[in-house]
């Protein structure tokens, strides 16, 4: 038999026999990551605020379990993890878009909710899930790269953007051998982006296609592929992974 006739060995799905929990799994990055995890052999458990959209996502993916609630209701979040019927292997935490406002228009209550969603929520999930995640599973957090710039209106999101890598490193030590990692994304073409940009969305897409080194706009599937890789590569912990198609390089050149 010649080498050309030897069939390649079939590879088992990377997440077979594992369970992935997605906080915010009914749309965008969360839904696409859940979809990719299912393709990799995992069972998925989804949570989201909107029960109807969550029901649709759960049916589409054949989710093992769904739970509709606001993840910043931390008592309810803890009950969710306490009531899970099985050990889990990975948790992805997504959240709402960032709050931008110049100081003159800064709303403290909106800012307080933003801090809850982007800083306290990951800490609460780490506290609630640490004893439920089977090592070497991972707690996977989401952030962005836009807050690394300095501009009017970015004070809060810049502070949170700087805080999350430090939080990730410290949690990776504190809840080891469970792994903790952070994905920092640039612009991603999601329903959330469409809501934030409104009629400026197509203009933003065109600008990115012209300027990004990769020549295209990043989509949820790009983030999902990275998320599943981090779940399956058990050497990764305490790290921040940028995925922006070179957006920061372009912005640095234009400064």
Note down, in words, how this protein is organized:
- This protein has 255 residues and is of the alpha/beta class.
- It is 44% helix and 17% strand.
- The protein has helices at residues 28-39, 51-61, 74-82, 108-129, 155-174, 191-197, 201-211, 220-232, 247-254, and strands at 19-23, 43-48, 65-68, 88-93, 133-144, 179-185, 240-243.
- It has a seven-stranded parallel β-sheet with strand order 3-2-1-4-5-6-7, sandwiched between helices.
- The longest helix is centred in the middle third of the chain and has 22 residues, at 108-129.
- The N and C termini lie far apart (61 Å).
Pick out its properties.
single chain; 255 residues; alpha/beta; seven-stranded parallel beta sheet; 9 helices; 17% strand
Q: Which segments are poorly predicted (pLDDT under 50) over 5 or more consecutive residues?
A: none
Terminus-to-terminus distance: 61 Å
The number of distinct β-strands equals 7
Structure classification: alpha/beta
Main sheet characteristics: 7 strands, parallel
Number of helices: 9
Report the β-strand fraction as a percent range.
Answer: 15-25%
Radius of gyration: 19 Å
What is the ordering of alpha helices and beta strands?
A: EHEHEHEHEHEHHHEH
Strand order of the largest sheet: 3-2-1-4-5-6-7
Quick overview:
This protein has 255 residues and is an alpha/beta fold. It is built from nine helices and seven strands, in the order E-H-E-H-E-H-E-H-E-H-E-H-H-H-E-H.
